[in-house]
Amino acid sequence: MEQKLSKRLLLIVLKYIPWLIAVGYLFGTIFATLGWSTAILTNFVGLSVLPTVLILISSFALGFCIWHRLPIYYTIVANWVNLYDYLIGFSFATIYTISIYLFLFVITVLLGAYFKNRHNVRKRNTKTRSI
Length: 131
Hints:
Blueprint (H helix, E strand, L loop, with lengths): L1 H32 L5 H7 L3 H13 L4 H22 L6 H37 L1
């Protein structure tokens, strides 16, 4: 019983924590770009590349659908954009930098909604065929 509960809790955490991390990354980037303090936010959602890779590998090992992997992909892309901005720097205004992250996040959410809806439609069609 206890092992089943821990496995269920692990699945829930691995499915929904990446979405919270992606939102935290978005707000952290916006706050940092505006020059606001991000210490508290960074302590809660700050991830380096290796834990992100661990979460991504776990999602493949457990057979998660793409809807649950999209925020992980967003986090990876946001890390690469952050690294580029840190090493080379963007040559445009702050508002454009924020726009890049908002665009990436909106694309991630829209793709997530599309794949989740497509998955639900397939599930409904399978149930209707089996009746």
